[in-house]
UniProtKB/TrEMBL annotation:
Organism: Niastella vici
Domain of life of the source: Bacteria
Location of the region described as Disordered in the Swiss-Prot/TrEMBL record: 345-364
UniProt protein name: DUF218 domain-containing protein
InterPro entries: DUF218 (IPR003848), Rossmann-like_a/b/a_fold (IPR014729)
Domain DUF218 as annotated: residue spans: 201-317
Length: 364
């Protein structure tokens, strides 16, 4: 695929424009935001790239095979039923919106959807930040040189912007940590007699403390206590604790980490009955991310999930969240939602939860 992208004249023209603007920016940009705006894809370029990717998927066997394989491990389940050309175009448009958004938020300083917890870490006119971005652009140009294609500069600069802003939440717990807690889940799930349980998992959404230095909000601890009671009553074989580094902004404490420690140390729940989901930043993604675990780990998706929380969040889940989730994710990651009590809600997970959200780089 890479060779066809590099050999495409329309795509190479975009590569050349970006490279010229990058070199010009190193000399003339007085602020970091200048780089962020000049190295985004324009509307016309987005259309040109989409057209060319579609053409390649129609005319090049290797590209068609790549599209076929990509559909199998598809992070774009909402587009899975589309023909190849529509799939390619929609996937590209999804990703480029997210890419431009990263450059806009974390270099230009535009407001993200949740400014209080997701915003840029620098002032727009910070000369040190400008110099760091310029140095990053120079490294990209020097490192990739003649091997650059039209995607190299925006993608590599987006990664560098996230690094400079200290925003690695989306990958902070890859591999070893997640494996330590969750690797056994899929195997154990195969052995469970699921008919013995009314629910697949008990989901405990995190509650981030607003005060710096506080590891676990007392309200979060109470949610864990309630979940432990229901676990011991045999309602589900697993408790999922869900929540990332959210409140206060850039907190070193992860909601899921602190809840799992509490459930083990205080509630004495066995570790192999706990599932850690350390990424979600909102109630909507508490549900979505839990659903992804269910679909990935041999947990039956046809069995309902039990959410255990407090009365305020229960009302939100069964009220305003239903509209908000469609606005923010573009779909509803649940069906058959039902409020059971002031602190309990059940729902069925839906497979569209696998759809990637490129507009939230901290938890896509």
């Amino acid at each position: 695929m890479g060779q066809y992208i590099r050999n495409s004249k329309p795509l190479d023209a975009i590569r050349a424009r970006l490279q010229r603007d990058a070199l010009d920016g190193i000399k003339n940009c007085e602020t970091a935001s200048c780089f962020g705006s000049s190295l985004q894809f324009t509307g016309a370029e987005i259309k040109t790239i989409g057209d060319e990717l579609v053409r390649l998927s129609l005319t090049r066997y290797e590209c068609r095979k790549w599209v076929d394989s990509f559909k199998i491990v598809c992070p774009y389940v909402l587009f899975k039923g589309e023909d190849d050309t529509a799939f390619v175009r929609k996937a590209w448009e999804t990703e480029v919106r997210g890419l431009n958004n990263i450059l806009g938020v974390y270099i230009e300083g535009r407001a993200p959807l949740y400014p209080k917890i997701d915003a840029i870490s620098f002032q727009n006119d910070d000369p040190a930040f400008r110099d760091s971005i310029a140095a990053g652009v120079h490294v990209i140009l020097d490192k990739y040189g003649k091997y650059m294609n039209c995607f190299t500069l925006p993608v590599r600069l987006a990664v560098e912007a996230m690094r400079l802003n200290g925003r690695n939440e989306a990958i902070r717990y890859e591999r070893d940590y997640i494996s330590f807690y969750n690797d056994y889940v899929g195997g154990k799930a195969k052995e469970i007699k699921w008919d013995s349980f009314p629910y697949s998992v008990i989901l405990v959404p995190g509650l981030g403390p607003e005060q710096p230095g506080v590891k676990l909000d007392p309200g979060g601890a109470r949610r864990c206590d309630s979940a432990a009671v229901r676990f011991r009553a045999g309602l589900a074989p697993f408790i999922v604790v869900s929540g990332g580094h959210v409140h206060p902004n850039k907190t070193p404490y992860c909601e899921a980490n602190e809840m799992v420690n509490y459930l083990i140390d205080v509630c004495h729940i066995p570790m192999d009955n706990l599932i850690v989901e350390p990424y979600a930043r909102h109630t909507t993604t508490n549900l979505r991310n839990t659903n992804r675990i269910i679909f990935n780990e041999n947990i039956p998706p046809g069995k309902p999930v039990l959410i255990v929380t407090d009365a305020a969040q229960t009302n939100y889940i069964n009220g305003p969240m239903k509209e908000k989730v469609v606005k923010e994710l573009g779909y509803t990651p649940f069906s058959s939602m039902k409020k059971l009590s002031a602190t309990e809600t059940e729902y069925l997970p839906t497979e569209n939860s696998r759809q990637v959200n490129s507009m939230d780089p901290l938890d896509p």
